[in-house]
Amino acid sequence: MLNSGLRRHGDEAPAVEQALALAALIELSTALGKVDLVPTWGDRLRALPLTAPERDQIRHSIATPDTRTPWLPHPFPG
Predict the structure, then answer these.
(1) What SS3 string covers 11-46?
(2) 42 in a structural domain
(3) Per the domain annotation, does 14 fall within a domain?
(4) For the chain, does the N or the C end have fewer beta carbons within 10 angstroms?
(5) Rounded Cα gap, residues 71 and 1, in angstroms
């Protein structure tokens, strides 16, 4: 459901909402062993123009720190 919503409405959604959805997809895919999907979503997440507070919001929304490390490194660039 997240994936189809992101496909349908992602381009219209604010960057922070796109990032939250992508972060959830990355975490779920990793937990379910569907890691082949993660790099594409991670690249999209990394490319979003997020402010430092938005990046913190995304980082705190992910329960497993190892999941976010490649896609939301700390400290954030920019």
Answers:
(1) HHCCHHHHHHHHHHHHHHHHHCCCHHHHHHHHHHHH
(2) yes
(3) yes
(4) N
(5) 22
Q: Which residues of the chain have pLDDT under 50?
A: 76-78
Residue-range definition of the domain harbouring residue 64: 2-68
Counting the structural domains of the chain, the total is 1
Q: Tell me the two tokens of residue 49.
A: 């123009």
At 45, list the tokens: 């997440």
36-48 pLDDT, tens digit per residue, is 988 998 999 999 9
Preceding peptide of 75 cis, ω within 30°: yes
Kindly report the pTM of this predicted structure: 0.77
Candidates 76, 74, 62; CA nearest to 31 is 62
Is residue 73 in a domain?
A: no
